[in-house]
Amino acid sequence: MFNLKNLIKAAAVGLGLIAAHAPAFAADKDAKPTIVLVHGAFAASDSWDGVAPILQDEGYQVISVANPLRSVSGDAAYTRSLVDSIAGDVVLVGHSYGGPVITNAAKGATNVKSLVYVASFAPEKGETIAELAAKFPGSTLGEALAAPVPLGNEVNDLYIDPAKFAALFAADVTADKARLMAIAQRPVTDYALNEPSGDAAWKNIPSFHIFGTADKAIPPAAMEFMAERANSKKTVVIDGASHVVMVSNPKAVADLIVEAATAN
User: Fold this and answer.
1) Cα torsion at 255, 258, 262, 264 (round to 10°)?
2) What is residue 115's three-state secondary structure?
3) Which of 10, 12, 121, 173 could form a disulfide with 177 if both were Cys (CB 3.0 to 4.6 A apart)?
4) Of residues 79, 77, 75, 73, the one with CA closest to residue 34
5) Residue 226 CB coordination number (10 Å)
6) Whole-prediction pTM value?
7) What is the pLDDT of residues 158-204, one digit of tens each?
8) How do residues 216-244 score in pLDDT, each as one tens digit?
9) Domain architecture of the chain: domains with CATH
10) Domain AB hydrolase-1 spans what residues (predicted)?
C-alpha cells in the first residue's frame, strides 16, 4: 500500500536531509566506510559528480550533502546530524568552504575515520575563512564577486560574477561546464566567511589534502601551510589544477579518498 511517510523519508535520505534520529545507514559494522562529500561555496552537490561514481565502483556508499552555506557552525551541525545517523566509519570530505564545515562537524564524532580536504580551508580554532584567504597572496576572489545581495540583519549573500567565474574558479574545465557551474552556483553568506571556527577536528583525526597549483580562490601557499599544520598524512598537489580540482581531476581526488578510507 502507498505509504506517504515512507516516501517522504526516502526522499529526505536521497536529498541528504537526515535528522539525528533517522535510521542508520550502513548498519553492517564490517562495511567499508561511508564517504560523505561536502561541497563548498559557489558550488553545489553536483560538483562531486565525477568523484562519486569512482567511489561507488570501488564499493563505497557515497552521500553528497546539500551544504546550506549559511554559517560554519550551523552548516557543521547540519552535517554532523548526517554523520551521527551513519552506523560504521565515515570519511568526511570537504571542498573549499566545506573544509571548515567538516573541521567542525567531526569534532567529537567517534565514527569519523579521516578527513579529506579538497582545495579547502583547514582552520584552527578562532580562525575565519576570510582571515585564512588573506594570509598569503594569490586569491582573486574578492575582485570577482558580484554586488552583495542583502538578506537583512547586516548579512549578505555573495555570488561570483558569472563573467569572472571560469577564470577564478574553474579555469581547467571546459567552457561549457564552467558556464553551467556559474549559472548553478549557490551563494554563501558573508557571515559564514567571517565566523570564527570552533575546535579543530584535524588535531585528533588523520587528514589528507589535495589542491592545485593554479587555484585562484585559495592561494596554494595557504593550503600547503594548513596541510603541514594539520600534520597531513598525505598531500597531493596537482600541477595546473584550478579550485575545482575534483571536477577537473576526479580520479586523483577519488584515489586520495580511497587512501584515507583504507589507512590504518
Assistant:
1) 70
2) strand
3) 173
4) 79
5) 27
6) 0.90
7) 999 999 999 999 999 999 999 999 999 999 999 999 999 999 999 99
8) 999 999 999 999 999 999 999 999 999 99
9) 31-262 (3.40.50.1820)
10) 35-255
Tens of pLDDT, residue by residue over 73-123, are: 999 999 999 999 999 999 999 999 999 999 999 999 999 999 999 999 999
User: In angstroms, rounded to a whole number, what is the distance separating the alpha carbons of residues 92 and 115?
Assistant: 5
Task: Copy the grid coordinates of residue 58.
Answer: 570501488
Q: Which three three-digit cell numbers place residue 193?
A: 566567511
Q: What is the DSSP letter of 203?
A: G
Distance CA 237, CA 61 (A): 26
CB of 129 closer than 8 Å to CB of 104: no
- How is residue 256 written as a grid cell? 586520495
Residue 116: helix, strand or coil by DSSP? Answer: strand
**DSSP label at residue 201:** G
The SS3 assignment for 10 reads helix
Distance CA 34, CA 135 (A): 34
Q: Is 111 exposed, middle or buried (0-12, 13-18, 19+ CB in 10 A)?
A: middle
